[in-house]
Specification:
globular; 14 helices; 303 residues
Length: 303
């Protein structure tokens, strides 16, 4: 399906004046903040139930705000919608399962291999391949695999979350092109909640308290509601390559919030890894605005 070209009047809106990369960075910060704050709830009901509660509360919020018209869904929209819902569920459940076992910054670094693969595979410029390669070196330094004390299940969950994250990036852009605003998310987040029901309900049923719902509601506002909306807006104006490589700074954000919120202090080698992935992420911004959107108000990523 061809991309929809926005109608413009020559006067950029306030939203269009905001560089798309800044929307993505804000979304990353909120996602990692929600993950750090979720650790307490994870210890009480488990990672799968925590992810399901966040998705369910997020689905309710999206449905109340956007009120999607199901009749507007075409047959060709079904696969992208179902795929994005499933990818969102996989990403959320697997990542919190990883965070329950390994430090937040390490989990994000491993999960980042998903967006890294998207950036490398979708790049049409040979020069762009250098930045994912550089970011990979930083990811290795952040994970410090040479210590020999790695939690293999935790790493496995983080890798699985990376598969969900890479798929999420590609499918979010497809859904964003088909549905205006956040109406696509108001359909896919409920799908994600349904996909995670089987693994999420048992933990809540075994240890139910009303306060869990209130905690999950607050966490859902931080993520997925605000960041998923920001990411969809960003992906309307960015290439998957630019967005995927920009995600290189998310391990740094995760490491920072892990240290501040959870007391997971990074070592010297991890600080070097942070510097490397940030350099790669910043360098990848140049030329990352989507071609053909037909909007002169779209700001270049390098601004």
């Amino acid at each position: 399906m061809p991309e929809r070209t926005p109608v413009t009047t020559g006067h950029p809106t306030a939203a269009r004046r905001i560089p798309p990369w800044s929307l993505a960075v804000t979304a990353m910060f909120l996602i990692q903040l929600s993950s750090a704050l979720s650790v307490t709830l994870i210890t009480e009901v488990g990672p799968a139930t925590t992810a399901w509660l966040r998705l369910t509360m997020g689905a309710i919020i999206f449905l109340l705000i956007a009120r999607p018209r199901l009749r507007s869904i075409r047959r060709s929209d079904l696969l992208p919608l179902l795929g994005l819902g499933a990818a969102s569920a996989l990403m959320s459940v697997a990542f919190l399962a990883a965070v329950a076992r390994i430090p937040l910054g390490t989990a994000v670094a491993i999960e980042f291999l998903g967006p890294l693969a998207v950036a490398a595979l979708r790049s049409r410029s040979k020069s762009m391949i250098a930045w994912p390669a550089l970011a990979l070196i930083g990811v290795v330094l952040l994970t410090e695999p040479w210590h020999g004390t790695a939690d293999l299940p935790g790493i496995g969950f983080a890798l699985l979350a990376g598969v969900g994250w890479g798929s999420y990036i590609l499918l979010t852009q497809q859904v964003g092109d088909r549905f205006p605003g956040i109406s696509g998310l108001a359909i896919t987040i409920p799908i994600a909640a349904l996909c995670s029901t089987a693994v999420g309900v048992p933990g809540l049923a075994a240890n139910f308290e009303w306060r869990f719902l209130l905690i999950a509601l607050g966490l859902a506002v931080i993520a997925p509601v605000l960041p998923f909306g920001l990411e969809m807006l960003a992906l309307k104006r960015m290439t998957p390559t630019a967005f995927g490589t920009l995600m290189a700074i998310e391990p740094a954000i995760g490491l920072l919030l892990g240290a501040v919120v959870l007391g997971q202090a990074p070592g010297p080698v991890q600080f070097i890894g942070i510097a490397i992935v940030v350099i790669a992420g910043v360098a990848s911004q140049r030329g990352g605005t989507r071609a053909g959107v037909g909007d002169p108000a779209v700001a270049p990523l390098s601004e």
